[in-house]
Amino acid sequence: MSPPPTPVDGIDLALYGVGVRFGGLVALDDVSLRVPPGRIVGVIGPNGAGKTTLFNVVCGFVPPTSGSLTLDGRPFRPRPHRLTRLGIARTLQGVGLFPGLTVLENVVAGASHAARAGFATALFGLPRSDRDERRLRREALDLLAELGVAAHAGAAPATLPYAVRKRVALARALIARPRLLLLDEPAGGLGADDVAELAELVRTLPERAGGACSVMLVEHHMDLVMSVCQELVVLDFGRVIAAGTPDEVRDDPVVTEAYLGADVPAEAAGAGS
Ligand SMILES: Nc1ncnc2c1ncn2[C@@H]1O[C@H](COP(=O)(O)OP(=O)(O)O)[C@@H](O)[C@H]1O
Ligand SMILES: [Mg+2]
After folding, report:
1. Which residue minimizes the CA distance to atom 14 of ligand 1?
2. Does 56 contact ligand 1 (Cβ within 6 A)?
3. Could you state a single Gene Ontology molecular function term (predicted)?
4. Statement to judge: residues 13 and 52 lie in one domain
């Protein structure tokens, strides 16, 4: 009998009155939201609403001009290179795999401190303990199998279809066993079947790793967000115009208006900026 999984607490992320200005342009204005432990929170909004800017604030790529963030109730100043250590993993809007590494090596490279060794090993052939090496490779292969792309383990990313590369990028984020996973437009560029499979996958993320992984899903694709998120925050012109459960948000006329007024209908999916 296998031992019960070790419980892992999800991270409690909160933003308070966050604002971002790019010169005269207000990209985010007084944005407050919370991603409680083990919850899947979606951030949606039409193109240009500020979704990616918000994502970049949480990752530390864009410093907020005003407001503050907390992680588990403590002040949080995000720095991109410190995220993994804090138990935070992300996937970017593009795919961003290392082109010189195989799929398997890319995933191995996603494992926190072992990750750096993995990357160095892959690049320079530096020795690492055989046991670590084997364990990480097995974990990476398991993840690839779970995501249905193990057959591509030895392939170079550039030779693979976009949807496969997106899964590899997700495996690379998951191998670090994040307590908070940040996804920026994971459905972008995917066809309807792939989006449906992605939805199923994201829904199972919190229970993975035997504990509560929180997810912040930034996504233009309304259907995906509605079907996987427990809570939604709707941005328009940098402001929160609605927040609540998918049902509450769906019926909110303010949201319909924001999406109808936008250049791309919500269903057009994939093509979000
Ligand atoms: N680095 C930047 N410099 C200047 N303006 C930016 C920058 N990044 C985003 N913006 C602007 O901020 C607004 C929000 O953009 P973004 O966060 O990418 O929206 P979304 O992801 O919801 O489509 C847009 O008007 C965009 O043009
Ligand atoms: Mg965006």
Report:
1. 50
2. no
3. ATP hydrolysis activity
4. yes
Going by their DSSP bridges, the two strands 13-22 and 66-71 should be labelled as antiparallel
Distance between CA 171 and CA 269 in Å, rounded?
Answer: 23
Indicate whether 68 and 185 sit together in one domain.
yes
- Tell whether the model's pLDDT for residue 85 goes beyond 90: no
Residues 136 and 195 in one domain: no
Q: Which two tokens stand for residue 263?
A: 């250049």
The parent domain of residue 212 ranges over: 1-87+178-273
Atom 18 (ligand 1): residue with closest C-alpha? 52
Query: Could you give the number of structural domains in the chain?
Result: 2
- pLDDT band at 182, cuts 50/70/90? very high
pLDDT in tens, 123-180: 555 556 677 778 888 989 998 998 889 999 999 998 998 888 888 988 888 888 888 9
Cβ–ligand 1 distance for 50 under 6 Å, the answer yes
DSSP state letter for 52: H
242 and 189 in one domain? Answer: yes
